[in-house]
Amino acid sequence: MNTENPEGTILVVDDDPFVLKTTSFTLNNLGYSQVLSVESVAQAMVSMRSANPPVEVILTDLNMPGTDGIEFLRQLADEGFAGDLLLISGEDTRTLSVAENLARVRNLNVLGTLAKPIRPGVLQKILTTRAPVTDAADEAGNEGSVEISPSRLGNAIADGELEPWYQLKVDINSREPVGVEVLARWPQPNNEMLFPDSFIPVAEAHGLIDPLTTLMLDKALKQAEVWHGQGLELFLAVNVSMDSLHDLGFPDRVGSLLEASGLKESSMLLEVTESRLMQDLASPLDNLVRLRLKRVRLSIDDFGTGHSNLEQLRDLPFDELKLDRSFVQGAASSETTRAILESSVELAKRLGMTIVAEGVETEQDWERVAALGCDQAQGYFIARPMPAEAIPGTLREWVARSSELQFASHRAPGWSEENEV
Q1: If you placed Cys at 142, which of 82, 186, 198, 399 could pair as Cys (CB 3.0 to 4.6 Å)?
Q2: Distances in whole angstroms, Cα of residue 40 to Cα of each of 47, 95, 100
């Protein structure tokens, strides 16, 4: 368990002096030395601008006189606060859950929620799950920092400059690696690396996403052939843009690449982001069914961020449901989220779908998704994205590490982390 302090300051905001005193005392006892306590949002904003080291974690009450916690969230968003946020309140859990969702809508990084009185064990568990870089942050690391022209990207795709990196997916019950997600990377001459958020929007806006997807498929399939020769049976999970699914020639191109590789059709899985799919279901459905007829497996990616309903889940020809990381991690502190998540897992299982949890960053995350009945996991707890040559060694490391860890078996629905605190 990571017990290191954040590099910056923890700010506690509450109008009750007793709560401030006890919370600061608890944080100090947990090893956090840089703690500031203020009684109002106005004081909090002043402290944020003057704190040294800068504020990286904020614990804030919701129900305060004057400017309340909800208004504070809006001010933090306007200020572009990029640290972590923990909501505390004596309100009911449903109110806390709605406030947490509001914070996420405002693009604030919410660690979770805490009901008063604060329990040290629960607070410690939430704070020690902080990761210096998350999957999402890693993917978005270059966003807005590099301006890419369509011609430059087009030339890079034509010259094969972009490379697939891979992140392991493992079976939760057996702990065996079963596949990899293919993630596009663009190496630069200065040894920097461009991530998808820097170039995918350009590709989609200028008709380059299909050649980019074809390049990733071609390179990944050739790499899978190499792994197959080494005795590594890993299926490929490849992200597909909605632009490709609107192209009626896409299934035939995928089929041709698979046939040329000599690999089984079931060795590939295509991931489609749920939120975009639901915007226009009729057009891509033709391609989805044709891909399914070619025995290419299909996955709904980022499930929980779109607007699925029972009818759409019934009608879509998907084999896998991939739970969004924010939805999974939100189940740690929200009974409502946990109930919805358990129902989603139960529904997917009844439909014969494989359940994959992404964003598994800690052993506690693993325990949670195992308890929910998920089938596979992916995230930094297992391995970060990596180039192809690093996969064999990482596989050996994971097998050795996982055999030493005391993972709990699946628990029945209704299990709560609070039972172990």
Answers
A1: 198
A2: 11, 20, 20
| Element (DSSP H or E) covering residue 323 | strand 320-323
pLDDT surpassing 60 at residue 227: yes
Contacts of 331 (CB under 8 A, 6+ apart): 337, 338, 341, 368, 372
- Sequence length of the chain is 421
Nearest residue to 123 via CA among 59, 64, 70: 59
Q: Which residue has 């947490």 as its token pair?
A: 100
Q: Cα(378)–Cα(376) distance, rounded to whole angstroms?
A: 7
Residues 178 and 168: their CA atoms lie apart, in Å, by 8
Cα of first residue to Cα of last residue in the chain, in angstroms, is: 14
Structure token digits, residue 199 = 């170039």
Distance CA 243, CA 205 (A): 10
Bridge partners for 180 per DSSP: 168, 236
Round to whole Å and give the CA distance between 230 and 233.
9
Residue 4 is predicted with a pLDDT of: 46
Interval 252-279: pLDDT, tens: 999 999 999 888 877 899 998 755 555 5
* Contact predicate 126/112, CB 8 Å: yes
Question: Is-contact 305 340, C-beta < 8 A?
Answer: no
C-alpha to C-alpha distance for 110 and 108, rounded to whole angstroms = 6
